[in-house]
Amino acid sequence: MPNYRVFFACQAVAVNNTFVEGAQSVGMTTTFDLEPIFQLGQLDPYDVIPVTPNVEVTISRALVDGGTTLFNGNFATVAANNSTNICLSVGDDTAPVLKSPTFNVFIEEAGLTSVSYKLSTEGAFTEDVTYSANKKKAGGCQVIAPGDALHGISGHVKMRQYYNGGTLPPPLVGQRISSITIGASFSRENLFELGRYEPYYKFVNFPIEVTCEFEVIATDLDSIAVAETATAQCASPQDNPKVAIVINACGNSWDLGDQCRLTSVTYGGGDAGGGNATITYSYSTYNTLTVS
Amino acid sequence: MDIESLVYKIITGYYYITIDDTAYKVLHPTLKIKQHAHLLYSDAMQKNKFDSPNWIKDRDKDNILLSNQIWSQTQETELEAFLKKLEDMKIELYLKFGDPIMKQKIKQSLGSGKKEVHKMHAKKMSMDHMTLESYAHNLKNEQIIISTVFHMDGTPVFTEKDVGADLLESFIGAIAENSIDMDILRVVARSDIWRSYWDAAKSNIFPPPAYDWTDEQRLLINISKMYDSVREHPECPEEGVIDDDDALDGWILFNKRRADKDRKKNKVMDAIGGKYKNANEIFVVTHSAEESQEIFAMNDASGMAQIRSMSKAANSSTEGVNWAELPHVKAELNGQIQQNNKRRK
Prior knowledge:
Strand content of chain B: 5-15%
Number of domains of chain A: 1
Distance between the termini of chain A: 38 Å
Structural class of chain B: mainly alpha
Largest interface: A-B, 50 and 52 residues
Low-confidence stretches of chain A: none
Shape of chain B: elongated
Radius of gyration of chain B: 28 Å
Helix content of chain B: 55-70%
Number of helices of chain B: 15
Helix content of chain A: under 10%
Order of helices and strands of chain B: HEEHHHHHEHHHHHHEHHEH
Largest sheet of chain B: 3 strands, antiparallel
Oligomer: heterodimer
Radius of gyration of chain A: 23 Å
Largest sheet of chain A: 12 strands, antiparallel
Order of helices and strands of chain A: EEEEEEEHEEEEEEEEEEEEEE
Strand content of chain A: over 45%
Strand order of the largest sheet of chain B: 1-2-3
């Protein structure tokens, strides 16, 4: 399909029939792949087989005080879940709160394919999640914004003061952290069986890498020493120890387990224009992310 | 219309008028004359600021117009809508310029629309002559005329001590008749005689500094530059469009609206980040009805048609309609198949 774009405004989104608070934007990409089957003796295709369509939905939202995250639980349970229903509604563009949607899009049996959290000193804490599905309908669902018809509901979005520590790797202890980014991306593959057009399951390709980046304002040069240390035969080098990472944000928490390893340290900024020098510590682990 | 005489009048900066069989020379006011006249304007405004019984103030003018049912907020809204409609018609004229029947129809509608707008403006401004601003403005204009009208031998017609009111009235009328409006200036700018000067020297036709140029000289330079920009544009319209003021306005408005739309689209895409760069449908949360309308307006004609057809299809069934069954998706898929076939042939 060509990449034309349709912009909708005044929208509400619900995941599993629950209104998503703090939603900022939603992007949808639908792909229909066609496979023509030709036969000898004619130029035109004998038949055109539509390959299972794929819908990708990305929801971007601000984390709200007292609210849960869209990715909730541990990796194994979320990855195994292929039955998320997403409903998007568009209504009268002059109504203060969406109470009578005029157009809805319903995505059924979606599975999560990527998740990203950004806790930054700039703006609200955000959650970006992407789902993949094979079923998408115009209509068939409806999202009604909660609260009264004039003012909807109001709450507080989480900002920098909502970060309340956690278990941090040793280089981060006592540092001035300016942003934390947690991300995981995993592909899903269709499993088919004879006698059925649509896939009966979309499995996740393990292992899944989970990354976590900490950006700190540099008060010194980074203290990570790298050396080709002499390691005894039949022994493992201990330069890069496993560390535990848990991040808390007043009600939300991200637990990456205790098998995280430092993958890079970047010292940058501090230019002649007066910018602050920053150090970015990147950690990664596999198959472990519990969000609550 | 005597274009040649208009060109000479603008280039020389003076012209001749005849009142009661006597010829006079009228100069275009210099900056100094305008400055002096403006002092009179400011002085009149200052002196009469608290002399409310003699003058209607702007806010009182609105109340009088409203209480006499001459002009109201509803009519103001109507006027704005009418002006927007006129712009839309100009764009339509540009887009349908190749179709003689449509062109004629749109021209007729534009003509009657302009007359209607003129009538509405006349109503809206029917009390303007009773305001202090109007009085001060008249004083300024009279001073300009007093300073710029000469006998053929070069002596001034009016002196500070001798300003004949009747003669001044005659000059006001005659000078108003000789003023060149924007439509005529555009005709002059397109004329061969002016273009021969323009192509030879561009804005060097008039000696610097630019603040010494007359209003007409300055406007003519600006209009000529506009025509140059249009001709240099990568999507320059055909010569017929350039020669038709309404169609050219339509072309300018069309490009301006397209650029505005692109700018807004880019702003939205920047605001929501690059994560939707491949998305077919983008849903953006808005905080006001105006913002919401702006988001919808970012869609082009096919996007709007898709929204309508999707809504119609979705509302036709409580169960919903599969995405592949939507008319625009079907059309896209058929197009894709045909494209594949063409490539094979």
